[in-house]
Design a protein that fits this description.
Layout: E1 6-8, E2 11-13, E3 17-19, H1 28-36, E4 41-43, E5 60-63, E6 66-69, H2 78-90, E7 95-99, H3 104-114, E8 120-124, H4 133-138, H5 140-151, E9 158-162, H6 169-178, E10 183-186, E11 190-192, E12 195-196, E13 201-202, E14 209-212, H7 217-230, E15 235-238, H8 244-253, E16 255-260, H9 262-267, H10 271-285
Parallel strand pairs: 3-4, 3-16, 4-7, 7-8, 8-9, 9-10, 10-15, 15-16
Antiparallel strand pairs: 1-2, 5-6, 6-14, 11-14, 12-13
Bound molecules: flavin mononucleotide.
């Protein structure tokens, strides 16, 4: 028996670590490397119906405590991305396809387009770097409609990626659950900025970007804890996880799995194996035989 195996709505995953959407870009070869390096499953960059060119450079700025990015969901569009999807399928790499639409119809189009090829979908309803990104997540009724409409046309698991930049993450999570979502991914990067005091202007061409990495970990952890307390569907934790201790914190807060983004960028692909090893040792040292036994334990304290 594999003590780290996770089962999220019929999707069996060999361990709880996932590559978070977007951080390694578009190419199938990088996603394949992440899987071969030990990720339980990989999430693609968010793909839209039509190509998106994204923002002008500079679009990434490294901070001591994380990353600021304003890539703006640049991607080649669904037709072109199908080539990468076929590469992943050829190599038997399990993946979750992240989709981004500007309307309910666009989300439905993307789900229909990719339905036969993917293990699950992640709906990106929370990108801070595009005009409509955060508008979706702030409108709980719209979130409900998007999830319900999408669920009505597919049997594939639907994960919904939400933001912490809302009045109440639990309201958003409940809307997703009631609409039939199979899991919540919490959280996306958080709108932020940095100013270069010598140039006296923002470092990013688009002024604002999404903050990710260690700086947002306590916020992401709080969101996972709050969601776990009120929801029955699985929560996938994401935000600032950069070592085994961080991963265990998220599991204890109630995450059934975790996604890793910025730490892959900063520390490299070995992070998946390092985190799995840490979790395995943690289970052994504390007398547990499988992952399930520690999920949400911090709620009982
Ligand atoms: C360079 C970069 C690109 C990203 N692209 C996407 C994306 O296409 N879709 C998405 O849902 N999230 C995207 N994200 C957000 C990450 O998937 C993740 O939610 C966020 O970075 C927090 O996790 P982390 O602190 O482990 O990086 C991106 C993040 C970075 C740093």
């Amino acid at each position: 028996m594999n003590p780290l195996e996770v089962n999220i709505s019929s999707l069996k995953i060999r361990n709880p670590t996932m590559l978070a959407a977007g951080v390694l870009g578009i190419s199938a070869s990088l996603l394949r490397n992440a899987y071969k390096s030990g990720a339980g499953i990989v999430v693609t960059k968010s793909i839209s119906k039509n190509p998106r060119f994204g923002n002008r450079n500079p679009v990434v700025y490294e901070l001591k405590y994380g990353l600021l990015n304003s890539i703006g969901l640049s991607n080649p569009g669904c037709e072109e991305f199908l080539k990468e999807v076929n590469e992943l399928r050829k190599d038997n790499i399990p993946f979750i396809l992240s989709v981004y639409g500007e309307s309910v119809d666009e989300f439905k189009y993307l789900i229909k387009f990719f339905n036969d090829y993917v293990n699950a979908f992640e709906l990106n309803l929370s990108c801070p770097n595009v005009k409509t990104g955060l508008e979706f997540i702030k409108d709980v009724e719209l979130v409900f409609d998007i999830v319900r409409e999408v669920k009505s046309i597919t049997k594939k698991p639907i994960f919904v990626k939400i933001s912490a930049t809302v009045n109440d993450v639990v309201d958003v999570g409940k809307a997703c659950e009631e609409a039939g979502a199979d899991a919540i991914v919490a959280i996306n990067s958080i709108k932020a900025m940095k100013i270069d005091i010598r140039l006296k202007k923002p470092v990013l061409s688009s002024i604002f970007g999404g903050l990710s990495g260690e700086a947002i970990k306590p916020i992401a952890l709080r969101c996972v804890y709050e969601l776990k307390k009120e929801l029955s569907i699985p929560i996938i934790g994401c935000g600032g996880i950069s070592c085994g201790e961080d991963a265990v914190e998220f599991l204890l807060a109630g995450a059934s799995a975790i996604q890793i983004g910025t730490a892959v960028y900063k520390k490299g692909l070995r992070i998946f194996r390092d985190i799995c090893m840490f979790i395995k040792n943690y289970l052994n040292e504390n007398g547990y035989s499988k992952l399930d036994e520690i999920i949400g334990l911090a709620h009982k304290a």
